[in-house]
Design a protein that fits this description.
The protein has one helix and seven strands. It has 100 residues and is mainly beta.
Length: 100
């Protein structure tokens, strides 16, 4: 993780592994633009820029970026939820993120 000119950046080695790694990947995003959004008092999502974009739920969002309205460029994998799980959006595993 590094900060350059007060902008936060993290890559896959900084973001670490997560139990969702083993789930099937539905699709991948590379260098997508979006904004951090507050879902409720404790959970944050990424609203991807563009029409028809779904709410992504980054399970490994760094604490430094947990601020509603923060604009980011990010990459990662949309993961398959289990049928018995209820998510407010698509579970998402970040591989790269930077504040813009």
């Amino acid at each position: 993780m590094k900060n350059s000119a007060d902008k936060f950046t993290a890559s896959v080695s900084d973001l670490g592994r997560h139990p969702l790694d083993s789930r099937p990947t539905v699709s991948s995003l590379e260098n997508a633009e979006g904004a951090i959004t507050l879902i409720d008092g404790n959970n944050f999502g990424i609203r991807q820029k563009g029409d028809g974009a779904v709410l992504l739920l980054p399970v490994n969002l760094p604490a430094q970026l947990r601020k509603a309205g923060t604009r980011v460029i990010f990459s990662g994998s949309i993961k398959q939820p289990n049928p018995e799980e209820m998510w407010a959006g698509q579970p998402f595993l970040l591989t790269d993120i930077k504040e813009v």
